[in-house]
Amino acid sequence: MRKIRLLFMVSLLLSGMFCNSCKKSDSEDTPVTPPGVGEFVGSITVHSQADTMLTYFLENNFNRITGSLELYTDEDIDFNKYLTNLTSVVGSVKLYKIRNTDLSFLSKVTRITGDLQISACPGLTSLAGLSKLDTLSNNLIIENNPKLKNLNGIGQIKSITNITVTNNAVLQSLEGLGSLTSIVSGLSIGENPALTSLNGLTSLDSIKANVYVYNDALLSTLEGLNTLKRIDGTLTLSGLPALSGLLALNALNDTITSISISECNSLANLDGLNNLPHIKKDLRLINCVSLKNLQGIEKIDSIGGTIELNNLAAFNSFNGTTALKYIRKDLRIVECNALNSLAGLAKLDTIYGDFIIDGNLGLVNLNGVDGLKGVKGKMQILNNDKLTSLNGLEPLKTISGNIDIYYNSMLTSYCALKPSKFGGIAYIGFNNYNPTWTQIMAGSCSE
Questions:
Q1: CA-CA distance, 194 to 293, in Å (whole number)?
Q2: Mean pLDDT of all residues in the chain?
Q3: In angstroms, what CA-CA distances link 287 with 312, 350, 380?
Q4: CA–CA separation, 329 vs 425, rounded Å?
């Protein structure tokens, strides 16, 4: 019995030693690297004269910030006095409503690893002071600065994640970004009423996400993008009434995801996209009153998504689509009232989605799709007031979805439409002549 009790006590002692050892190991902290000489760890945020962070930064001879620098004040503060030694920020720099006319208080800064955001600074006329900045790892945001005319002074930045330049009332160009060769993500330029070109991006080679240029009333050209060879995302041009051409995009020679152009009322064609070999997804052209044709995309033989032509008052031919053979989703032609046929689509072989022709008031027939053999989705022919026949659809052998033919007030002949493979239901009504599908197939196809 004594031996059992002794063994029990020894086991308790051993288990206690083991547990104490575990607790000691678990409680040990990971060593923390102390701040380096001149390094301020944490964010400096200033809202008023009463904030003491700038004084603390100056009195302790800091020259680096591991954190953010955020100046959110319109009070008259001499930032040059406090930040005279600042050389880098491992974080973001955000300037909001400061009264400075330039950014000379950042004249020694070479590196910002977060965003540089300059917003609503009422007296800012220049970015002078950023001439030593050669590294900006994240986003450049320039917005709501009423006196800023260009971006001169911003230094030697070669690569950046995003650029957003919006609502700067007198901004005329992007001069100052001449060293930039690549944008890792996107470019967004909008609501700059005095901007006339994109001059300043003279070394830019690639943009690896989306380009969005919108609501810049005086932007007449895309000059400045002349060296741009690739856009890996979508090119969106919207609300640019003075834009008269895309010739500045002539260096684009790689595939692009999508192109969307809307409310660009001086644009007559797509010249400038002549070296573009492929569009991975969609081509959408909407509400461009002067666009006459698709001249400029002669090299493209396949569209990976949808072609949408919508409310193009002057569009009168598919000139420019001479190589186009496949549309991987839909072809939508809506309210193109100057169009009288589909001439220009002679090589189109297959539409893998829907084929929709709706509200084209000048369309007389469907001649031009001489090689169209298949529509894998539905086909809709609606509201075309001058359409008298379906002539042009004779080559069409396969329609996999439904056929809707409605509200074509002069349509009397369906004889061209006799697919050998039809997988849907034909709905025909409210035209000048409305035969059943059985009648059409039996030969009673016209009146």
A1: 29
A2: 92
A3: 6, 26, 21
A4: 20
Sheet holding 421-422, edge to edge: 302-303, 326-327, 350-351, 374-375, 398-399, 421-422
Q: Spell out a b/e string for 294-312, using b for 16 or more CB atoms within 10 Å of the CB, else e.
A: bbbbbebbebbbbbbbbbb
Q: Can you give the pLDDT at residue 87? A: 97
Tens-digit pLDDT profile for residues 137-146:
999 999 999 9
Q: Looking at the DSSP assignment, which residues form a beta bridge with residue 182?
A: 159, 206
Instruction: Report the DSSP beta bridge partners of residue 46.
Output: 71
DSSP letter at 184 equals: S
337 Cβ partners below 8 Å, 6+ apart? 313, 360, 361, 362
CA-to-CA distance for 68 and 114, rounded, in angstroms?
A: 8
Phi and psi (nearest 5°) for 50? -75, -20
Instruction: Measure the CA–CA gap between 248 and 268, rounded to whole angstroms.
Output: 15
What are the beta bridge partners of residue 142? 118, 165
pLDDT score for 29: 54
Would you state the structure tokens that stand for residue 9, as one six-digit string? 């006590």
Alpha carbon 430 to chain centroid distance? Answer: 42
Average pLDDT over residues 377-398: 97
Is residue 10 over pLDDT 50?
Answer: no
Residue 307: phi, psi to the nearest 5?
-100, 120
Sheet holding 88-89, edge to edge: 39-41, 64-66, 88-89, 111-112, 135-136
Neighbours of 395 (CB within 10 A): 15
User: What is the distance between the alpha carbons of residues 396 and 302, in angstroms, rounded to a whole number?
Assistant: 19
Residue 260, strand partner residues: 236, 284
Measure the CA dihedral 249/212/356/395, to 10°: 20
C-alpha–C-alpha distance, residues 319 and 296, integer Å: 9
What tokens does 173 get? 């160009």
Instruction: Report DSSP state, residue 59.
Output: H
Residues 277 and 257 sit within 8 Å (Cβ to Cβ): no
- Copy the structure tokens of residue 6: 């002794």
Task: Please give the span between the terminal C-alpha atoms of the chain, in angstroms, as a whole number.
Answer: 116
Output the DSSP codes for 8-51.
HHHHHHHHHHHHHHHHHHHHPPPPPPPPPTTEEES-EEE-STT-
Flag whether pLDDT at 396 surpasses 80.
yes
